[in-house]
Each structure stands twice: as structure tokens, then as C-alpha cells.
Specification:
The complex is a heterodimer of chains A (236) and B (292). Chain A is α/β, with parallel strands linked by helices and 236 residues long. Chain A is 40% helix and 26% strand. Chain A has a single domain, classed as 3-Layer(aba) Sandwich (Rossmann fold), CATH 3.40.50. In chain A, the strands form two sheets. In chain A, strands 6-7-8-3-9-10 form a six-stranded mixed β-sheet, with helices on both faces. A four-stranded antiparallel β-sheet of chain A has the order 2-1-4-5, with helices on one face. The model of chain A has no long low-confidence stretch (mean pLDDT 92). With 292 residues, chain B is mainly alpha-helical. Chain B has a two-stranded antiparallel ribbon. The longest helix of chain B is centred in the first third of the chain and has 33 residues. Classes of the chains: A alpha/beta (236), B mainly alpha (292).
Chain lengths: 236, 292
């Protein structure tokens, strides 16, 4: 049984269909990439999984339970952490308060002190900035904080929406190294990226979205070898 | 003599302004978290005035307990109004407009209910504490000092709550980014209900403290509502600190203004001051400039 399973999910904005019968699996402990151009439905897919939107049809299972009608604040407790597009930090709050929001669930809240220490060991930079407002951080630090905030929730599945957006290549490398490290500790990762090269190098399996539908799925290595993918998405 | 008069007016302005601050911080909390305007805020104020009148002036319950009763009862009423009138609108399209009509309707209903049940008469509420303090040749009623003390204490408590409790953190998170707050486990619909109740309770506290000075009647909520909006815009929509500073500032400007004109002009002074401020800073004193 996969950790996360989408079965023929269709989502709409008003009457405009953004996802067309998308099916996708993420297994326990793996990294899965979803690539596709701007407007292909990648963000909509993540929003639908995390409950910010509800699909019009289809089913979503997480650890065997149907979750397509569950509200987002309940999903984080079950183990889905979603780092939305644009990071969406609480800009007027300090780094510490942002991390605390990650531990908002009752169980984690009790252990918030220890969790912050644990996370800061992973991101030493954040410890230096702990009292600073999130809005004053640099782009790389913001992505680190967004990732750290999500990890404070101790998720089973981490979903990232365009983590590389607007970041220098060197910082992107740091972020990806952290994601791989987190994954080695048993957290499954669903990585949505416009930067296909980057995503395919990080993930084991991948899906290609076009116009809201899955048009290709398979091993990341196959994607990297595929001529049409190389032409359209890798610019080679 | 003139300096004493000025000083006395400034002190009075701070006292009244601190109540504006309390009243307006309720409005700004609702705007900040729910992004809506609450036109029934004045009626929560009015109902608390009546509750204090009945508890303290009629039933002779001690003033502190009367205040607590009024604040708790109005908190509960706020929660009920949010759950019955507002809640189901928030998840629907054009809620920005429907909530205005809904709160306006609530205001009219509560006001007319009060008029029907209690009549249009002004009910006087005795001072909670008698006597005057004499300092530097100016006389201040202890009631006014009490008002100042209560508002300072409640602002500190409120600040502590927002800054240092789990619920306060969730409330601020919801205000800053409701989607992100949900993603990290905040049930924003519960936060909305709680915020509405808290806001009503702040109006109630202001009413309880002011009742002995202003007298209780069905229309007593109107003037504070207008002043409350002035303060909220003055301070910057959604800014808690802005509501506090804006409230005190407006109180002082008004009470100095009446030195040069009559009391009927106080609203004119308030709005003129507002227009002048937003002329220079359209986003208010503590608001954030919106960039396109």
C-alpha cells in the first residue's frame, strides 16, 4: 500500500478544470518529482492533497484513509506537511515563532523546546537568526525556515512547491542536500518543480503534468534519457 | 491657569482615548484576522452598558463582579452571533459584502430590541469609586484613573496573550496568512469564532468602564463605533499597536479641540484629524504601505 495515493482526481477553479483525472502514488520513504510547465496544475495538485482545495471527483488516500474531504489543519496532524509556493512564512513573526507554528499540533507542542533544538542543529543558520522577523531573512534563509517549519511537524510526507524558485544555485544545492538528508530519515518527499533537471536528479520517480493531466510517469532516469522530455523540459 | 487647563484636558484625553483604544483594538482584531468590518461592535458595547447598569445600579452587585459578568456575557453573545450570523458566510463568495450587511443587520436588530425592551431613557450608572485626586492643581476623578488603570492592564494582558500563548500565536498566524496557518494545524474557523468573541469582550470592557461617565441608552454604541473606525484607520487597519496609539492620540486631540470649540464639534475634530493624517499617510500611522 502506497503512503499517498491519488485516484483520478479532478479539481476545478469555478468552471475551469485545473486537474484532469490525475492518478499518482508516493511510497513510504521515496522521493517523487512532479515536473511540468507553468500552469500545468502542479500547485493545484499539492493544494488538493493538503486540503486547501477539495477535488470535484476522485479519491485521495493517505496511509489507507480517504482524505479528500479532510480540512488542512487535520492533515498536518496525520503527517502531511506542505511547503506552499512562495514559502508563505509568517513575515511579521520571528524565526522562533515560525518554528513554533510548525509544532502547533498538541503532541509536538509539548516537545517544542526539544524540537527547536533538534531542527536548529540541522539549520545552524536559523539558530543565529532565531529572534529576527522572518520578513527580514534572505531568500535562502526563508526557504530554510519554511523547510524547518514543516519538519517541526514531524511529517511522514513532505511536499515542496518550487523550493528552488528565486534562489542561487549554491543555496538550492544546500536545500536539496537537506531534503535528501530528511528523506534518509524516513520522510517521503513529493517535490514539485519547474526546474526539471534539478527535480529529476533528486527524485527516484517522476510524473510529468501537462494541462492538468499526467502525460508521463516512470523512473527519473528514464525521464532524463527521454528525447522529448530533454527537448521540452531540460532545454538540451 | 492655562497650563493647568491644558494639562487637565490632556489627562482627560488620555483617559477617554485609552477606552477608544480598547474599543478599537476589538475592531482591528476582527479586521486583521477575518478581513471584515463589524458594524455590530457598538451594540456589544451598548449591551454591556445595560448589563453593568442592571447588575451594579439595579441589583447592587459589586462593580468588579458586574464588569466581569458583562464581559463574559458579551463574549458568549459574540460567539453566538459569529456562529449563527457570520460563520456560514465566510466560506462563500462575496463574503466581504455579505458580512457587512449581516453585521449591520445585527446592529439594527440589537439596537431596536434594546429600545423596545428598555425604552429610550438614559440610565445613569453611579461611579465605581467616589472622590477626586488633586495633583499639580488639577483634579481627576478616581473613576477616570480606574479607567486608565483597567485599560493599561487589559492592553498588557492582551499583548501577552497575543505574543506568548499558543492560541495568541495561532490568532496572529491566521491574521498574517490564513492558508499557511491552516497548513500548520490551525483550525481557522474556530479562530474566527474566538476572535469575534474576544473582540466583543473588549467592547464590553470599555462599556463597563465608561458607563458611569456616559450614561446607558440604546444608541450609545453609535458614537464609539464611528470613533472606533477613525482610530482603526488612523492607526493602520489590522495593527494592534496602531489601535492603541491611535486611540490615545484621538482622545487627546479631541479633548484639546474642545478647548477651542464646543463639545458638539468633537466628531468634526476627530474626522478632520483623520483626513489630515491619511492625507499624508494613506496606510495609517502603523499600517504597512500597500504596493502594487
Amino acid at each position: 500500500m502506497p503512503l499517498l495515493s491519488l485516484e483520478r482526481i479532478s479539481s476545478f477553479y469555478g468552471e475551469a478544470r485545473a486537474l484532469a483525472e490525475v492518478s499518482l502514488d508516493v511510497d513510504e520513504g521515496e522521493i517523487v518529482a512532479v515536473i511540468g510547465s507553468n500552469g500545468a496544475g502542479k500547485t493545484t495538485m499539492l493544494r488538493t492533497i493538503s486540503g486547501l482545495m477539495h477535488p470535484r471527483s476522485g479519491r485521495i488516500y493517505f496511509r489507507g484513509e480517504a482524505i479528500e474531504r479532510t480540512r488542512p489543519h487535520q492533515l498536518i496532524r496525520r503527517g502531511i506537511a506542505h511547503i506552499p509556493e512562495g514559502r508563505r512564512l509568517f513575515a511579521q513573526m520571528t524565526v522562533r515563532e515560525n518554528l513554533l507554528m510548525g509544532a502547533y499540533g498538541a503532541q509536538n507542542w509539548k516537545e517544542r523546546g526539544a524540537l527547536i533544538d533538534e531542527i536548529c542543529a540541522l539549520f545552524p543558520r536559523l539558530r543565529e537568526r532565531i529572534g529576527q522577523l522572518a520578513g527580514t531573512l534572505s531568500g535562502g534563509e526563508r526557504q530554510m525556515l519554511a523547510t524547518a517549519r514543516a519538519l517541526m511537524a514531524r511529517p511522514r510526507l513532505l511536499m515542496l512547491d518550487e523550493p528552488s524558485l528565486g534562489l542561487a544555485p549554491k543555496i538550492v544545492e544546500t536545500i536539496l542536500a537537506i531534503i535528501r538528508d530528511v528523506n534518509r530519515r524516513g520522510v517521503a518527499v513529493l517535490l514539485v518543480e519547474q526546474n526539471a533537471q534539478l527535480a529529476l536528479k533528486t527524485a527516484a520517480r517522476a510524473y510529468l503534468l501537462e494541462g492538468g493531466a499526467v502525460v508521463k510517469s516512470g523512473m527519473a532516469a528514464e525521464f532524463l534519457a527521454d528525447q522529448s522530455v530533454r527537448r521540452s523540459y531540460l532545454g538540451i | 491657569m492655562l497650563t493647568q487647563l491644558l494639562l487637565a484636558q490632556i489627562v482627560n484625553g488620555i483617559v477617554v482615548g485609552s477606552m477608544y483604544a480598547l474599543f478599537a483594538s476589538g475592531l482591528t482584531l476582527i479586521w486583521g484576522t477575518m478581513k471584515m468590518l463589524n458594524f455590530a461592535h457598538g451594540e456589544f458595547f451598548m449591551l454591556a452598558g445595560y448589563l453593568v447598569y442592571f447588575c451594579y445600579a439595579v441589583l447592587d452587585i459589586n462593580p468588579a463582579l458586574s464588569t466581569v459578568i458583562a464581559v463574559v456575557a458579551v463574549f458568549v453573545l459574540g460567539v453566538v452571533v459569529e456562529r449563527t450570523v457570520i460563520h456560514h458566510l465566510l466560506s462563500r463568495p462575496v463574503w466581504q459584502f455579505t458580512t457587512i450587511i449581516a453585521t449591520l443587520g445585527t446592529s439594527i436588530i440589537l439596537q431596536n430590541l434594546a429600545l423596545h425592551v428598555w425604552g429610550p431613557e438614559f440610565q445613569n450608572v453611579p461611579y465605581f469609586v467616589e472622590g477626586m485626586l488633586n495633583v499639580f492643581g488639577i483634579r481627576i476623578a478616581y473613576q477616570r484613573l480606574l479607567i486608565l488603570g483597567v485599560s493599561c492592564a487589559s492592553i498588557v494582558v492582551l499583548w501577552f496573550f497575543l505574543k506568548h500563548t499558543r492560541l495568541g500565536l495561532a490568532l496572529r498566524a491566521t491574521a498574517q496568512d490564513s492558508d499557511a496557518a491552516q497548513l500548520y494545524g490551525v483550525n481557522i474557523l474556530s479562530i474566527y469564532t474566538f476572535t469575534f468573541g474576544l473582540s466583543a469582550a473588549l467592547a464590553a470592557l470599555a462599556a463597563a468602564m465608561l458607563a458611569p461617565i456616559t450614561a446607558v441608552n440604546p444608541y450609545m454604541g453609535l458614537s464609539p463605533l464611528l470613533k472606533g473606525f477613525v482610530v482603526v484607520i488612523l492607526g493602520g487597519l489590522g495593527s494592534f499597536g496602531g489601535a492603541i496609539v491611535g486611540g490615545v492620540l484621538l482622545g487627546v486631540v479631541e479633548s484639546l479641540g474642545v478647548l477651542f470649540s464646543s463639545t458638539e464639534w468633537s466628531d468634526v475634530i476627530a474626522f478632520t484629524f483623520l483626513v489630515l493624517v491619511i492625507w499624508v499617510r494613506p496606510w495609517g500611522l502603523f499600517g504597512v504601505e500597500e504596493r502594487s
